[in-house]
Write a structure and sequence with these properties.
The chain has helices spanning about 10-30, 85-115, 120-155, 180-200, and strands at about 35-40, 50, 55-60, 70-75, 175. By secondary structure, it is α+β, with helices and mostly antiparallel strands.
Length: about 210
């Protein structure tokens, strides 16, 4: 007996939400606006604004013609100046993308079984459960990165960049960037989709193929 399509509508919606969450987490990982540093001391050669991201830092300053100049510097694996919060967050965001990708793949397999009526109850149910756990774990990874970034900003923690970057150890002031908001939304959507997958249950009146 083929399972009615309406029985998995919530999981289809959860898949769409998980896809959006995965896209947003990927975008946030590439954005540089995790921290916005304001360097307003006119006596310093590096006065201006610095965008501190997880993989690079971009500095905006005014030249002698009052035009804005942008210089970006990519981090390398051998950079010793990176603080623990950035190093750990790099791995957390990479893990989020991997977990989200596997979670989506498992949901595709589960939905395929549901819509084709190829039902082995334990197998299909477990696919949704594992995917839900992966998405909730991904939400936790993004949340840790966001919260640690929040802690670093509120405590005005500095970064000992190499002098070549022309960025001071600490700015005059700093605030959250747009990447933090994108990552926060991704964490919420991962959690929402994971909860949706975990809530899946078979209708009691369907016939399933026995497990081998």
């Amino acid at each position: 007996m083929i399972l009615p399509i309406t029985s998995a509508n919530r999981q289809v919606a959860g898949f769409a939400v998980a896809t959006v969450a995965w896209i947003l987490s990927s975008i946030s990982m590439g954005l540089v606006e995790w921290r916005v540093w304001y360097m307003d001391n006119p006596s310093l050669s590096y006065s201006g604004i610095a965008m501190v991201g997880m993989w690079r830092v971009c500095v905006y300053h005014h030249d002698n013609n009052s035009s804005k100049v942008k210089m970006c510097h990519q981090y390398t694996y051998y950079d010793t100046f990176l603080p623990p919060d950035i190093r750990v967050s790099q791995h957390l965001l990479l893990s989020t993308n991997i977990l989200g990708l596997f979670g989506r793949a498992l949901v595709i397999l589960a939905l395929k079984n549901v819509y084709l009526g190829i039902l082995q109850k334990n197998v299909t149910y477990n696919l949704f459960v594992i995917s839900g756990i992966l998405n909730i774990t991904a939400s936790g990874c993004v949340s840790i990165a966001v919260l640690w970034n929040y802690y670093s900003i509120t405590n005005m923690e500095g970064i000992d960049f190499t002098p070549y970057f022309h960025v001071p150890f600490k700015p005059n002031s700093q605030e959250f960037g747009s990447a933090t908001l994108v990552a926060t939304l991704a964490a919420f959507l991962f959690l929402l989709s994971g909860t949706t997958f975990l809530s899946y249950s078979f209708p009691p009146d369907i016939q399933v193929h026995p497990d081998v």
